[in-house]
Amino acid sequence: MSTLSQWRLRAAFADRLSKMYGREVPAYTTLVDVSREVNEDVLRAQGADAERLGSISRVTAERHGAIRVGTPRELQQVGRVFAALGMHPVGFYDLREAATSAVPVVSTAFRPVEREELARNPFRVFTSMLTPADPRFFDPDLRARLEAFLAGRELFPPELLALADRAAAERELPQEDAERFLQLAVEAFELSPEPVDRSWYRALERISAVAADIGGVRSTHINHLTPRVLDIDELYRRMTERGIEMIDTIQGPPAWRGPDVLLRQTSFRALAEPRAMRTPDGSVISGALRVRFGEVEARGIALTREGRARYDNLLGLVDERSAQSPGEARADIARTVWEQHMPDTEQELAAQGLAYFTYRVAADRPRDGSPPPNSVSELVRQGRVRAEPIVYEDFLPRSAAGIFQSNLGSEGTRDNEQQGAAYDADWLSGAVGRDVLDPYALYEQQQNRSLAQVASELGHDGALLRPVPPLHPQG
Length: 475
Fold this sequence. Notes:
Layout: E1 3-5, H1 6-24, H2 26-46, H3 56-61, E2 63-69, H4 72-83, E3 88-94, H5 95-98, E4 105-111, H6 115-120, E5 124-130, H7 140-151, H8 158-170, E6 172-174, H9 175-188, E7 196-197, H10 198-207, H11 209-215, E8 224-227, H12 232-241, E9 263-268, E10 272-278, E11 284-290, E12 294-299, H13 305-324, H14 330-341, H15 346-351, E13 357-361, H16 376-381, E14 385-389, H17 397-406, H18 425-432, H19 439-458
């Protein structure tokens, strides 16, 4: 009997989820089509340079999804589903602190972690969990009602979880079981036709539209799906030309002359979707909710901790200058700040220890008999070693919060006089039942493995081959 390995399950799930979401949200299909057109145009214009951060086949197939759950139990169960697909929880994101409006969730991202698995299919799911224990958003009475409601629902059927556990343990499923697993998994994230209790939903919506989307219904659903594009500014222009209403900005680093780093994101605005509503007298009426949208992303080079500190400092500087010059476009201010304070070449990013790269000995390296230098930067400069950027596989809490906020109908409410409930990566690891991995450690391991290989080929002590210590952040 034929079997499906985990990566094939992951690829099939991502494809089926995309098709399902396209049927439910037709504008998403437009987004995918325009992304493909832009990618083909960039590939024609730039050739091999367009694939520096991933092959065109990977970029075309690439998606990230976003879902929202209500409790640690639900988070643990969805983690079991993603474990079947070879996906691990990576990173801790606190959107409560990243947003000015009420976004009472903490999040992680389930994704593959090995380089080979990412190359096969890099599907990721940004997974947010509601925080009913945070008194800034929920008073004791609403918290009790919310927790009781969440405890009384079942998001993932036992058959799905049993198949997921088997796939995670055996790292594959027989064809027939794989088909059943995929059917149940996709169904779990479809928009339910079950009527929404209008009064309960509205009570939560007054606090936060995100809270209502999570705790105001008896099911979960895919909140958005995100294709990857090679030129997000061009995509934004083309989507607008097609009459698709986009949010006001592209989140993340600015468009500028230097290397793309981290992640740039934008989306079309959440659409009013018809939903059945149950009124207090028990009757069912037609209504509409705005909760789902289509996001698109452009991925850049992964930054080190020092590089991320530089990025965060520059964001703060952009905020400061934007406040001082309200008449000037924020994108123009950001571009100027980046050009003043961020290295504008990959080589300098590597030399300053601001970004992650893999290294390989160049086949056409100089062979004049002289001993190669000990510095990685010098080896690269002399053409003895090639540096290839590591793509950023993760997320930015401020950007995610910005996307969420841009698609909310209102700011919601929060009481900042209250002390927020404490959540961190260790707490989330306990909730999901698996270690939440440190993304920096994953990038560093990938870089270090390549350095060890270079050291072996050149006859060096590996310790001598690390990038030079980073300079202090400028500005």
